[in-house]
């Protein structure tokens, strides 16, 4: 590995930690818009890992995950380089919005170009200055507005290394996800940067369980990459691995009575929710279309016909899943997330 690591034109030497502002564009207020980047290099050589949050500006859990991560005592024995970016979509966070001011979704604009739209330019700077300088990456997300996700890792599980890193992370569920056009993960994969996506919680909310699970997961991945010393005797929860998931949609418009929660095991045909009219009369029932675990759910008790309500991850071997359900319940109760970083 080269002795010098340069980001945004600023060199960071081994053993150094720097906070760097990565300029993107100048605003019409005659002020600079920059992405804040934290770079920590261990005294000893090792891999380079980026961890980023708030590519969708309203997804806050990852911001907290990164602030806890970079203040963690565990990083004192860092090998290699950690690039942590707590807020990628600075515009979105200012407006408490998923999008950029031009209405674009940054995570559909990668790898971007230097002459493209605002989103495309932002993606380009991030790719050149952060992603292209790393071998590994973890992209932190939450569910959309009024939707919660069970802590889960998404990635290309057909890649054995990504599968191993995903397992090491230790989230309750690991979901095989095909690459999406224009996503950071797709652009990173094209550069052979092995990238995991962590989804947990809801937009515009902090969820402590999701945050602790995220910090612990990143530290676990760093141990797996030998960026941090291994801890002996520590049990990492084996995640449920799913290659298929689908959303169950509302069959009618109305007021929702939720019957099942995040992380619950449901069987095909089982009742998930009831849709009522304002007088309390039942209009429709919503039932699961497969055996699986509830990994995402709307929290808003008002639905239009066709709204996505429950995200169910299916499993090829449901019997194995049932056997491990106790383990999952313990985890969700917080028992396995008690590590203080
Ligand atoms: Zn997101």
Automatic annotation (TrEMBL):
Q: Which CDD domains match?
A: M14_ASTE_ASPA-like
As one GO molecular function, the record gives: metal ion binding
Q: Does the keyword Cytoplasm apply?
A: no
Do you know which PANTHER family this protein is assigned to?
Answer: BLL3975 PROTEIN, SUCCINYLGLUTAMATE DESUCCINYLASE_ASPARTOACYLASE FAMILY PROTEIN
Q: What is this protein called?
A: Succinylglutamate desuccinylase
Pfam families attached to this UniProt entry: AstE_AspA_cat
Q: Which residues form the Succinylglutamate desuccinylase/Aspartoacylase catalytic domain?
A: 46-224
- Entry superkingdom: Bacteria
Required co-factors = Zn(2+)
Species in which this protein is naturally found = Microbulbifer thermotolerans
